[in-house]
Amino acid sequence: MRIGIDRDRCIGAGQCALTAPEVFTQDDDGFSSLLPGREDGGGSALVREAARACPVAAITVRAR
User: 4Fe-4S ferredoxin-type domain location, by residue (predicted)?
Assistant: First the structure.
Protein backbone atom coordinates (compact mmCIF):
# COMPACT_ATOMS: atom_id res chain seq x y z
CA MET A 1 0.00 0.00 0.00
CA ARG A 2 1.04 3.62 -0.44
CA ILE A 3 0.50 6.02 2.48
CA GLY A 4 0.38 9.78 2.04
CA ILE A 5 0.22 12.53 4.64
CA ASP A 6 -0.94 15.98 3.58
CA ARG A 7 1.27 18.09 5.84
CA ASP A 8 -0.63 21.25 4.91
CA ARG A 9 -3.86 19.70 6.20
CA CYS A 10 -2.46 17.91 9.28
CA ILE A 11 -3.34 19.61 12.58
CA GLY A 12 -1.29 17.29 14.81
CA ALA A 13 -4.22 15.58 16.53
CA GLY A 14 -2.13 12.39 16.79
CA GLN A 15 -4.96 9.95 16.13
CA CYS A 16 -2.85 8.12 13.54
CA ALA A 17 0.05 7.63 15.98
CA LEU A 18 -2.38 6.40 18.65
CA THR A 19 -4.10 3.99 16.25
CA ALA A 20 -1.04 2.59 14.41
CA PRO A 21 2.06 3.50 16.46
CA GLU A 22 4.17 0.98 14.53
CA VAL A 23 3.70 3.07 11.37
CA PHE A 24 3.01 6.69 12.39
CA THR A 25 4.73 9.12 14.72
CA GLN A 26 4.69 12.84 15.34
CA ASP A 27 7.61 15.08 14.44
CA ASP A 28 9.13 17.74 16.70
CA ASP A 29 6.40 20.18 15.68
CA GLY A 30 3.65 17.67 16.55
CA PHE A 31 2.65 16.85 12.99
CA SER A 32 2.19 13.32 11.70
CA SER A 33 4.93 11.50 9.87
CA LEU A 34 5.78 7.95 8.93
CA LEU A 35 8.36 6.02 10.85
CA PRO A 36 11.49 5.24 8.80
CA GLY A 37 11.01 2.12 6.70
CA ARG A 38 7.21 2.18 7.11
CA GLU A 39 6.32 4.04 3.92
CA ASP A 40 4.38 0.95 2.81
CA GLY A 41 2.60 0.48 6.13
CA GLY A 42 4.73 -2.44 7.22
CA GLY A 43 1.81 -4.80 6.77
CA SER A 44 -0.17 -3.17 9.59
CA ALA A 45 -3.88 -3.83 9.45
CA LEU A 46 -4.43 -0.61 11.42
CA VAL A 47 -3.18 1.82 8.74
CA ARG A 48 -6.58 2.22 7.11
CA GLU A 49 -8.19 2.68 10.53
CA ALA A 50 -5.61 5.38 11.32
CA ALA A 51 -6.53 7.17 8.10
CA ARG A 52 -10.23 7.02 9.04
CA ALA A 53 -9.42 8.32 12.54
CA CYS A 54 -7.76 11.47 11.21
CA PRO A 55 -10.15 14.34 12.00
CA VAL A 56 -9.07 16.36 8.94
CA ALA A 57 -8.56 13.47 6.47
CA ALA A 58 -4.86 14.27 6.04
CA ILE A 59 -3.92 10.61 5.48
CA THR A 60 -4.49 8.71 2.26
CA VAL A 61 -3.99 4.98 1.79
CA ARG A 62 -3.91 3.46 -1.67
CA ALA A 63 -3.08 0.09 -3.11
CA ARG A 64 0.16 0.01 -5.04
Answer: 1-29
Structure confidence by residue, pLDDT tens digits, 55-64: 999 999 998 7
**pTM for the full predicted model:** 0.89
How far is residue 44's CA from residue 64's CA, in Å, rounded to a whole number? 15
61 burial (CB, 10 Å; 0-12 / 13-18 / 19+) is middle
25 in the Ramachandran plot: left (φ > 0), alpha (ψ -120 to 50) or beta? beta
CATH code of the domain containing 32:
3.30.70.20
| Domain membership of residue 11 as a residue range | 2-62
